[in-house]
Specification:
By secondary structure, this protein is mainly β. The chain is built from one helix and 16 strands. The chain has one helix spanning 95-98; strands spanning 2-3, 12-15, 18-28, 36-43, 49-55, 59-62, 66-76, 79-84, 90-94, 110-116, 119-124, 128-136, 149-154, 159-163, 171-175, 180-185. The strands form three sheets. A six-stranded antiparallel beta sheet has the order 1-6-2-3-4-5, with no helix packed on it. The protein has a five-stranded antiparallel beta sheet with strand order 9-8-7-10-11. It has a five-stranded antiparallel beta sheet with strand order 14-13-12-15-16, with no helix packed on it. It is flat and about 60 Å long. The model has no long low-confidence stretch (mean pLDDT 88).
């Protein structure tokens, strides 16, 4: 059992048999009444995020999760297959379990999987990935001074807004959390 004073971002807790990860937490002391800790929790099975308020000092059960590095192999139909590099065991996740983040999967890359009681709860993607631009409109000479942007389709299927100077074939770095362009990789 841990206290709300021990809350930190990324910590996994168990409430009513469900495993949640703390996305944000904030201590709040109102003028009258007891102090509270406001949190945003992510359900690791479904990916849903919701707000929950705990009384200050309240005890919750800490979920013992295991994180393993898995290599993404391929997708077939509505399943994606991963391999544990330590024991070569293969794991499958459905596209529904992965959700919209499936666009960041790239064959051969390593990704962190969260396990609870031997089952994969979800995947933790790196904060930034490098992807090749598959399709975008050509930049027009002289447009770069305006600071405009255009949509670009990346390998994997993600679409992000990029500056006008980015062309097809360029490799760019993208923030996976905000889905925003970071920089062009040389």
């Amino acid at each position: 059992m841990i206290s709300t004073a021990d809350f930190k971002t990324g910590l996994t807790i168990e409430l009513d048999g469900t495993v949640y990860q703390i996305v944000t937490h904030e201590f709040h002391k109102p003028g009258k009444g007891q102090a509270v800790v406001r949190t945003k929790l992510r359900d690791l099975r479904t990916g849903n995020v919701f707000a929950k308020t705990f009384r200050s000092g309240e005890k919750v059960e800490r979920a013992r999760v295991e994180r393993k590095e898995l290599q993404y192999l391929y997708s077939s139909g509505d399943e994606c297959f991963f391999m544990d590099s330590q024991d070569y065991e293969q794991h499958a996740l459905t596209t529904a379990q992965i959700g919209d983040d499936q666009v960041w999967l790239h064959e051969g890359e390593t990704i962190t999987a969260v396990f609870y009681e031997g089952q994969i709860l979800g995947l933790e993607f790196p904060s930034a990935v490098e992807r090749k631009v598959v399709r975008t409109d050509p930049g027009i000479r002289g447009d770069t001074a305006t600071g405009g942007s255009k949509p670009a389709l990346l390998e994997g299927g993600a679409t992000v807004q990029v500056p006008l100077f980015v062309n097809e074939g360029d490799v760019i770095r993208v923030d996976t959390r905000s889905r925003e362009y970071v920089e062009r990789v040389k």
